[in-house]
Amino acid sequence: MTAILERHDHILILDFGSQVTQLIARRVRESGVYCEIWPFNHADMDKVKKFDPKGIILSGGPCSVLQKDAPAPPQGIFEIGVPIFGICYGQQAMVKQLGGVVESGKSREFGRAFVDVTAHSDITCGVWDEGAHEQVWMSHGDHVSSLPDGFEVVAKSEGAPFAFIADHKRHFYGVQFHPEVVHTPHGKDLLKNFTHNVCGCKGDWTMAAFRAESIAKIREQVGDGKVICGLSGGVDSSVTAVLLHEAIGDQLTCIYVDTGLMRTGESQQVVDLFRNHYNIPLIHEDASERFLGGLDGISEPEMKRKLIGQMFIDVFEECSKRVGEDDGIGADFLAQGTLYPDVIESVSFIGGPSVTIKSHHNVGGLPEYMKLELVEPMRELFKDEVRALGRELGMPEDFIGRHPFPGPGLAIRIPGEITQEKIDILRKADVIYLDEIRKAGLYDEIWQAFAVLLPVKTVGVMGDARTYEYVCAVRAVTSTDGMTADFYPFSHEFLGKVSTRIINEVQGINRVVYDITSKPPGTIEWE
Ligand code: XMP
């Protein structure tokens, strides 16, 4: 059992394939309780008992409990005496399994709805009073129509007479709505009442505890071995490196491959922070000519991505051979900033591989033949927990709060062929755009903002002269995970200011457009 499980209370979330299961985990962790998400069909009872959860949450999901072979939780979870909280599909699956009835519905509810609280429960205690009329977020076609023995109604809505049910004795609860989404204003408190009041979790899973436990774990795994860690300039690899350095000091060497596709000043910031500030041994490899040469004449997006990924691996491997050259042993471990969303096994009902939209390149993805054992201290963390860990480690805020930046860098923000001239033009435009966003105090509201240099020249007039120069597109999106995104609604005044500055200050651009595409149907990056 890992240190986290030994030392802290934990909750098990069984996933039935809802789009928002990860939000349940986020809410539980925000209240200081460690939890894991498992696909419902990977939860055999031996495994569950070994995990020893203080409570179990059943997520929502896209299926109907009325369909043949509907996904069902293992019967055993209702017999081991732990509290259970079923959400939407999870509620219906629990009701069906315990002898109640679920019907498909005349009374479908999607979006905002209201419930009337009709009775007291340990979950609503201190959050919703009896008699209150409370906002929730619903998304269901089927609904519970008859309760299993032992259950009673806590709240009802127009379309769901059993919107909130409880078996107070066995500590089984079910809600038809989604407490994990922000559109259920007190949802977080209801979940906290489940984990704290009902399950008795202490809420002691903090970043300070995580830091101390991770350091002990890293030391145990690595012993006196040598570790290499690829830095990208981004948050995940940076926090991984700083944590590792705290754990094993100079046994860690970082490798920063400068692809020449980074933004203005970025490479220098990485060197300043890691080599000069933290004193971490750093190999800074300027491979920009190699990358630019390799990309010469290539305009197809996937070709670009694949070439960059391959060149990166080649350069990284060459650099890694230099680590430990003196003793001829080389590195034993590769540290990666793998996060929990990459680790969670997804529930697939449809089967078959999904379509590849883009082949991602990350600094971590290195070939197996390098025969390095992986160190992945952040496998249990979500992105915002990584940021919290970075803060806990005292890392500078401007590093921790950075927008994501893709592994292939500016190459995928220059549709078509890449030249040094285009990279230089794009860098200048990007700096101005982000400078204006920061000045307007909008940086932290936006998930990601960047400029794109289009392979299109248009005619303009500056002074009395004709110009024939590139078009620059600016993009800004809000998102919680990069999976879906909305374009940011800048004011016209702001966009006007950005446009004027870019055209006046960047030679080579005479027109600026704003990208108003959400994801889907667009993607965040242009390639
Ligand atoms: P898309 O363009 O797929 O991007 O909507 C979603 C998020 O992923 C980032 N992105 C990448 N990150 N390597 C990365 O490390 C990549 O190859 C890559 N491609 C896209 C993108 O910046 C956005 O945050």
Structural notes for this entry:
By secondary structure, the protein is α/β, with parallel strands linked by helices. It contains 15 helices and 20 strands. It has helices at residues 3-7, 21-30, 45-51, 89-97, 187-198, 207-222, 235-248, 266-277, 288-294, 301-322, 340-343, 383-392, 397-400, 420-439, 492-505, and strands at residues 10-15, 34-39, 55-58, 84-87, 101-103, 109-117, 133-140, 143-146, 152-157, 164-167, 172-175, 227-231, 252-258, 282-286, 333-335, 373-375, 448-462, 465-478, 486-487, 509-514. The strands form four sheets. A nine-stranded mixed beta sheet has the order 2-1-3-4-11-10-9-6-7, sandwiched between helices. It has a five-stranded parallel beta sheet with strand order 14-13-12-15-16, sandwiched between helices. Strands 17, 18, 19 and 20 form a four-stranded mixed beta sheet that branches. Helix 6 (207-222) crosses helix 12 and helix 14 packs antiparallel against helix 15 (492-505). The radius of gyration is 26 Å and the shape is globular. The two termini are 42 Å apart. The protein binds xanthosine-5'-monophosphate (XMP). Residues 358, 360-362, 404, 406-408, 448, 482, 519, 523-525 line the site of xanthosine-5'-monophosphate.
